[in-house]
Amino acid sequence: MPTNLIPALDPAPLPGPPWLFQVLWVLTFFIHIVFVNTVLGGTLLAALAGLARGGRRETRTLFVEVNSWAISLAITFGIAPLLFIQVVLGRFFYTATILVAWAWLGMLVLLTVGYYLNYVAKFRLRAGEGVGALLVVEAGCFLAIAAIQVTVNLLHLQPGRWGAVADNVWAALADRTFAPRYLHFVLAAVAMAGALAAWVAVRRAGKGGDAAACRGMAQFGIRAALVATLLQLVDGFWLLLALPEEVLRSFMRGGAATMAPLGIGIMAGVLLLVVLAGISDPLAQPTRVRHVAELIVGAMIFMVVTRHQLRDFYLASSRAGENVTVAPQLGPLALFLAVFVVCVGLTIWVLVRAAKDRPAPGEGAA
Amino acid sequence: MDYPIWNLAMGGGVLIGIVAITHVIVSHFAVGGGFAIAVIETLAVRRRNPAWRALAKRGSLMLILVSTVFGAISGVGIWVTIGLVQPAATSALIHNYVWGWAAEWGFFILEVVTALLYYATWDKVRPRTHLVIIWLYFFAAYMSLVIIQGILSFMLTPGRWLETHSFWDGIFNPSYLPGIVLRTGICLFLAGAYLTLAALRERDRRARVPMVRLLAGFQVVGVLLAYGGYRWWEHVLPGSVQAIFTGATPLLPALASTRHLALWALAAYLLVALFAAAVPRLHLWPTAVVAMLAGFAFFGGYERLREGARKPFVIRDFMFSNGILVSQIPDFDSRGVLANAVWAARGSEASQVAKGRAVFRAECASCHTIDGYLSIRKLVAPVDPDMLSGILATMREEGNEYAKGTYTHRGHVATDKLDYPLMPPLVGTEAEQEALATYLLTLKPSHGAEATNAD
User: Fold this and answer.
1) pLDDT, position A47
2) Which of B45, B83, B105 sits opposite A94 (nearest CB)?
3) Fewer beta carbons within 10 angstroms: which end of chain A, N or C?
4) Nearest CA to CA, how far is B203 from chain A (Å)?
5) Is A8 contained in some domain?
6) CATH code at A217?
7) Where are the alpha helices (DSSP H) in B70-204?
8) At what angle do helices A18-47 and A178-206 cross, to 10 degrees?
9) By the CB < 8 Å criterion, does A108 face chain B?
10) Which domain range does residue A295 map to?
11) Is the overall model pTM greater than 0.90, yes or no?
């Protein structure tokens, strides 16, 4: 009887070169994670806005309004990496999701509840009503989704754990990298959302917004980003040291290809900490606030690359001898690229047109 | 087949059906609603009619709450459920159509952004810009449908793809165009049905009547297109597929009943839509709700037909509903199914019963549960050991017929000629067949009593 639980490779050939799928996967995942961090971190900060000294309502309103489109975009941009992981690593991914099927399916329920709660919060805020409890439940939904994603991610990387999880589903959580990885995810989201709040507050103040409210929101955002980044540095090393020995060893032996993205990511984190610590009055230091946002996005780019490289090391032994055949579908690939360029072009064009188009005085609006 | 099996009492197929039907009802409204709202706002701008503008605005809130929120989540929900229930088939589809899906994703980006933008720019931009946004939305939404229809219809009528494995042959398969016509009709009538509910909130009767009449027009045209598309779709299906739910003695009477229900629902819908067009002032909540329910009944019925008519395949003539490929039958018959079903075979060394249970998990559990949906315990209850052996032997023999192409007709397996036309054949060695029989007999209610008496 077979003892290896990894399903056979799909007999159909890959419809494009593997490198292309990897590139598209990493690129689209990065865009997805920007929106995911905005939603997760934003909801957490909105729920915790009561701790701010000022601008509580503005902070809540900002994230609830942003979430009403950011959740849609997080889902939309999640579709592409979901496609590409299935092409490249389908047999690992499907197995991991089936092993925790109820949680994976439950993610949809949590997402639906979280999204509609956000709309309820949006309309209540517009009506001047309280939203504290709603935001706590919404944040709970998104935190649970993050935990499910981390669980599936760790499980698909480690076929050696599948048997134990099949016998006892709670074993899915028995991974020593789970806690640091989950924290890594949540803290990055909080840092990004904090930077976003500060950046928006600075812009609003520059356009004549309520100075006290803007200051409160900016300071709350910077403080959240500072605390999250400080904890992130500690957690990052915890995560690195918690990695399985062979994975860590392979990673360290990867030379510049692996060490450069990780090193730059860590340096961006340290630099971020320095810049954040130097901000005493965000409204008076708009350039520094902008640097915070830039450093966070920069760190995320390199960490996404590192995350992808780690996946290869995790799966190296399981995929050894994998004989992938490739039969590129050039016509359909060209169709995709053409559609993508046209649609992104039209999207940008219509956004710009809508932003610039304002009825003249006396002229009716739509 | 060589993936873990998710034991779901309601049956995986039922779960996929629930999620998929919910999603398509929403997503087709997202397409048709976009068109209807674009038409309504265009008329509002040309006629400077504030009531029509208000209707477009009300409709747009419904559009984003239903399509960008629920539609997006339920769309991902289909991915999640098919990956859990039919991973091998999902993998096969992904490997063939990833660029098609990726292109659809490109349109989806435009669709979601324009939907959100349309709602956010009421009272903020010039009417012309607002119209550009909604027409762009409709273009993107309809193009998504144009692409996804190729993949959906492929599963039932793969056509020349079976020989060429070409992306384009798979997309432009025999039921592609009929399905486009049918779904376009559905988009139109769903848009008419939903937006009528929004129009009925207009208190001014003089303003309401022309709205209801226009939306009734959408519904009449939609119903007629859907009917024509449906008939065309049925016409292009292979005879063995038609035999499942049409004719004097359909192979699956429940599916034939679904067909009758769906067509009668469409007929009823046409009557209500004509009534609304003729006397719009009398078309109020009760008839509007009846129209909507009739539309749901037709659409849900059609989707059930489309899914059910694939039996015993998940991709017609290529992959069975248990994930086994037609081309794998000879190999599995000689080496054994359990040699390839790593998850089903887990821990099956111990006994003949355990081995039989493993065969059940590998070949039957994708459709049958033990005590829930399509309960195997109920099915084996009236069967004696000899009869069971005979059934399994016949089913195994049918595997050879599939492999040899004994009943191939015009490039399709003529499943209606088989003794078990709706079931995948039993594949594997004779020993595995016997083990399965042993296991199934343990499920008979009498088995426990016999064991007790023997003690």
Assistant:
1) 96
2) B83
3) N
4) 22
5) no
6) 1.20.1630.10
7) 72-85, 87-120, 127-156, 161-164, 167-171, 176-199
8) 70
9) yes
10) 18-354
11) yes
